[in-house]
Structure formats: structure tokens, C-alpha cells
Amino acid sequence: YMKCLEDHTKTKQENIPKTLSASLVNIHLFGDYVQKAENLFPEETKTACLSTIANVKTICHKYFLSRIHTDLKPLYRKIWTQAWLADHDDVIQGLVKELENHIDNLKQLKPVCREELVGELHVEVMVEYVRRMMKRKLKLREKSKQEQTADLMCKDSQIICSVFAEAGSKEEWLPEILPKLSEILRLQDPGSLQLEIVSLVKDFPDLSEQHILAVLNLKTNLSSSDLRKIKGCLRDNRSILNAESSSSFFSKVIVKKKIL
């Protein structure tokens, strides 16, 4: 069944969305049955069934989400550019309008299936936003410019996450990411920056040194000495921080350019 479904997504048949919508309902019902059926299956059979169900769901979600991201790509490219700074409201509202249109098209799905797909889209849109930020297309030399972009990040977080909350996303931890990152841009004192970064890594253990340096490199007024102190503080504290977190986010954000 999984193989046939995967092959089906590679065709150009017009009925693919309807087929996948029905499949998501089927695998949800089957997964619910397997989980609730006590002593009906050996544990290894139950585990194998749930693993296959997860794989089938991934195939369906990938089909829907990849097409959404393809349409959003031109809008993603404007985020964290001079155009974003100069015409912020137009850029972010353009993204929001396109998101709302795509989310509206998902109404064909059963509510429980739609909620899962919308939640996954919510994560991926926020990942793309942070990835665009860490491409470092902007250089924020003045304190006023750093404060301006920090404010815009918080505004974007509120606008984007509100759209997803209204659409049914249950990823309630996502709205805190951009405001926390914005503090790294807003703070000027190296000591305060160190404390903020350690706090952020505590909340998100998958936040790597490369991620942090990508953000700090936006602040061109930081000295090499300040950067070394912040890196040293992070390394000293990383070993004592709680490595367990229910939310994996930054591991999805790929920083392509190596930052020393």
C-alpha cells in the first residue's frame, strides 16, 4: 500500500490530492485502532504497523507541503532582505495572503488530518524564516537598525503564528522562537548576550554554535574579542545544560556557510 501510494505521487494524475486525502483518513483510523487494541497484536507487530503508518503519512504530507513551499519560494526570498526592511508590511502580508490561500485549500481534509498537516507547515514556515535570517543577507551596523529588525521579527512572529493558530495548529511553542532570537539582535552588552544565548540553548539544545554565530554575524559592531568570549561561554555551559527537549527546531535549519 505504501509503495503504491508513493508511486502514485510521482504521476501527474489530477486525482492525487483526493487520493492522498482519503489515505490520510484511512491511516489515521488504522493507527488509532492499532494503538487502542490491547493484546491483539504482538508488540513488535504493533511497532512495525505504527512505523509504516508514519511513513505513509510522511509521503502524503510531503506531497502537499512541497507544492505549497514551491509557490511560497518567491515570497521567502524577500524575507530578511533590504526589500523586507523597506516595505515590510507589503512583504509579510504577501506571504500571509499566500499562506491563507493554501491553508484554505486544505479544507478538503478531515479536521484531525488537516490539523496535523497545518502544524507541520507551521514548523516548516518558521524554519524557512530563520534559515533566511541566517543567510546573513543584511548587515546591521547600528544599534538602531538592530532594534528595528528585532521589532520586525517579533511582529512577523505574531502575524504568522496567528494565521496558523486560527487554522488549527497546536504547535504552541513556535511563537517564542523569533522573539527569543530577536533579543540577541537587541542586546548590546556582551555579558547580557552571553546570558541570553545560554538561556536559548537551554530551551533549544539543538541550537548549534554555527546557528548562534550566524545570528551574531548580523551584528557587525561586535568585536572579535566579544565573539570569542561568547563562544567560550557557550562551550563552557553547553556540557551542563539539559540536553533533553521536547521541541526540535534548529536542527532543521541548515547553515550552509561555515562560520569561524
Based on the model shown, name its key terms.
single chain, 260 residues, mainly alpha, 70% helix
What does this structure look like?
This protein is 70% helix and 0% strand. The protein has helices at 2-9, 16-36, 43-76, 82-86, 88-105, 111-133, 143-167, 177-186, 190-203, 209-216, 224-238. Helix 2 (16-36) runs antiparallel to helix 3. The chain is globular. The mean pLDDT is 90.
Short description:
InterPro entries: EXOC3/Sec6 (IPR010326), EXOC3/Sec6_C (IPR042532). This is Tumor necrosis factor alpha-induced protein 2. With 260 residues, the chain is mainly α.
Record the SSE blueprint.
Elements: H1 2-9, H2 16-36, H3 43-76, H4 82-86, H5 88-105, H6 111-133, H7 143-167, H8 177-186, H9 190-203, H10 209-216, H11 224-238
Helix pairs in contact: 1-3, 2-3, 3-5, 3-6, 5-7, 6-7, 7-8, 8-9, 9-11
Protein name: Tumor necrosis factor alpha-induced protein 2
GO cellular component, one term: exocyst
Family: Belongs to the SEC6 family.
Assembly state of the chains shown:
single chain
Calculate the mean pLDDT score and round it.
90
Give me the Rg, rounded.
21 Å
**Major beta sheet summary:** none
- Amount of beta strand: under 5%
> What is the number of strand segments?
0
| Low-confidence region ranges | none
- Share of helix, binned: 55-70%
Tally of alpha and pi helices = 11
Coarse shape: globular
